[in-house]
Amino acid sequence: MKTTGNTILVTGGTSGIGRAIAEKFHDRGNRVIVTGRRQALLDQIAAARPGLIPMPLDLDDPASLLRLTSEVRARFPDLNVLIANAGISRVEDVAADDWDVSDAEAIVRTNILGVLRVTAAFLPILKGRSDAAIMATSSALAFVPRADFPAYCASKAFLHSWLTSLRHQLRKIPVEVLELSPPYVRTELTGSEQATDPRAMPLEAYVAEVMRMLEREDHPRGEVLLARDHARRWAERDGRYEEVFAAMNPD
């Protein structure tokens, strides 16, 4: 994936990793469209970064995606990169007497169906572009889960598998398929505490490393994965899955 000269659409681009990546690509002279559900954040981005192009998108609303697709086709026919980053995460206690599946259903709608829907909407456009790419945000937790985030981790495991199949099916079509698998990063994905947690990787440091990996094309198998997360990635292959799982999920 080239890092300059693109027209890029970033879903979930109003905060966290999505916004940071959008800004980094914008710094490199790319035309960058950021989407999100919260109009206040879109307005904030427009004021802070006049070069970024904010557009509303609610992935739970088919009409919203249809409007966005139509507008992008009309205004940005040279779109060649989709970064499907929108995602949510919630703690779930399935042992609790009052547990229900509403949080899991919301996670599936956003993290799984949202990626599938936006890919289906824009893949026909990307197929006709040079230097086309799709990058979707998975997680290092796709490989070994945090058991207190069961649906979130499972949604990312789904994306890992699905992106592998997508990459194979598009192998004869010039659309690169990348999987971005962040570690624990200082964002508000799980709440405000994560944004200041010293155990989490600083957002700026993470995104800077991602950009370096993209520039060097350092993403074997299409996986944009930090070296620090290789132990989790290969835990099962290396016979260390139970050990790594126990370390991540102490009694």
TrEMBL record:
Q: Where is the Ketoreductase domain?
A: 6-186
- Family assignment from sequence similarity: Belongs to the short-chain dehydrogenases/reductases (SDR) family.
Q: State the name under which the record lists this protein.
A: SDR family NAD(P)-dependent oxidoreductase
**UniProt keyword list:** Oxidoreductase
Question: SMART domains, from UniProt?
Answer: PKS_KR
| InterPro entries associated with the record | KR_dom (IPR057326), NAD(P)-bd_dom_sf (IPR036291), Sc_DH/Rdtase_CS (IPR020904), SDR_fam (IPR002347)
Q: Which residues form a coiled coil?
A: none
What Gene Ontology terms describe what this protein does at the molecular function level? oxidoreductase activity
Task: Give a Pfam family name.
Answer: adh_short
Q: Which GO terms describe its cellular component?
A: membrane
